[in-house]
C-alpha cells in the first residue's frame, strides 16, 4: 500500500491509460481548477486503489471494469467520467444508487476506429497478413484478392462509427453498403449517401460478403456462427 499526504484540494483519480497522451495537457487544466490529480492502477485492482479512491470526488476511468465494489470504496465520488465512448464496463445501477453521475466521451475515437476498420477489411480482402508472412519466409505466392468496391459490405450498428465506416466505403471505395440498426429508424439511415437498409440481421447477412460489427452485445452475441 502506498500512503500519501492528504490534500485539502478535491481529488480526481485518473486510471485511463491514454489520459493526456496527446498534445493537450488535461491534468494541468484540472490542477489549474484547484484539483489534485492522482494517477492510479489502470486495471482497477482494488488493492492498488484502496489509497486514492476514498479521497476521490471524481474518477476518470479507462476501459477496465468499474464495479459496485469499486464504488463502495469511494463514498465521496460525484462524477465517474469514462475516458471512452461506452458505458459497458460500468455498473450503472450501482452508480445510480449512489447518485454518481456517469459520463463518457462520444465521438472521441470515431474517425480512428473507422479508419482502422477499413484497414482491416482491406487486409482481409487483399491478403496483407498472408503476403507479409510469406515474404518474410522467402516465399512469393500468388494471392488473389478482391477490390474493396466489389463486395457488398454489411454494417451492423449505425451509430457514429458505423456511419463513418459506411461513408468511407461507399464514397471512397464505391462499395455497396447495406446497414442494419434496431434502434435507428430506416429513414435516418437512408439519409447517409450510398447506404441501403436491411430489414433485419438475417437479411443483412444474406446480402453481405463482409460484415462489420459496430454495436455492443446484450444477453447474447449479436453475430454468431448460425447467422453467418
Descriptive account of the structure:
This is D-3-phosphoglycerate dehydrogenase. InterPro entries: D-2-hydroxyacid_DH, D-isomer_DH_CS1, D-isomer_DH_NAD-bd, NAD(P)-bd_dom_sf. Pfam families: 2-Hacid_dh_C. The chain is an alpha/beta fold. The chain folds into two domains: 11-103, NAD(P)-binding Rossmann-like Domain (Rossmann fold, 3-Layer(aba) Sandwich), CATH 3.40.50; 109-213, 3-Layer(aba) Sandwich (Rossmann fold). Helices cover 31% and strands 17% of the residues. The chain has helices at 26-32, 46-49, 68-72, 92-97, 110-125, 128-136, 160-172, 186-189, 201-207; strands at residues 11-14, 36-39, 56-61, 79-82, 101-103, 152-156, 176-180, 195-197, 210-213. The strands form two sheets. Strands 2-1-3-4-5 form a five-stranded parallel β-sheet. A four-stranded parallel β-sheet has the order 8-7-6-9, sandwiched between helices. Helix 1 (26-32) links the parallel strand 1 and strand 2. Helix 5 crosses helix 7 (160-172). The longest helix has 16 residues, at 110-125. The protein is elongated and about 65 Å long. The model has no long low-confidence stretch (mean pLDDT 91).
